[in-house]
Design a protein that fits this description.
By secondary structure, the chain is α/β, with parallel strands linked by helices. 32% of the residues lie in helices and 21% in strands. The chain has a single domain (3-141), classed as DNA polymerase III subunit chi (Rossmann fold). The chain is built from three helices and seven strands. A seven-stranded parallel β-sheet has the order 3-4-2-5-6-1-7, sandwiched between helices. The protein is globular, with a radius of gyration of 14 Å.
Length: 143
Amino acid sequence: MAEISFYVLPTESAQERYLFACKLIEKAYRSGAFAYVLTDSPEQSLLIDDLLWTFRAGSFIPHQIFTGEVPVFEQTILIGSNKPPENWLKTVVNLSSQAIQDFQKAGRILEILDNSETTKFSGRQRYRRYQQEGITPNYIDMR
């Protein structure tokens, strides 16, 4: 069963949310987890792709946009709005407004919410869905 954590940030800024996501992605990568970053759109995927290059000077996190083909080099962070490939279900960073397909197969899901009403509303829906499946998510209030 998946371990699910909801991080609720004090700001309504989407940019701060994405920067926080980059920090969690870096932490996951350094611990040996090769995460999938789930987004709502190709545009959001590109934004995260760009931020992973620039969010911290001297940081290097191998990553790429997932286009449906599994990369040859598996020690890569994948970013996309498609269903994650099986080998990347161990850690999923969810920046989308939807729950991951087959979330029951995931090892760990990191849900990152800013303090805007839109993001919190979709986060509450996912939280309830996880509870209905018998999972009690962790709630981490960063405010």
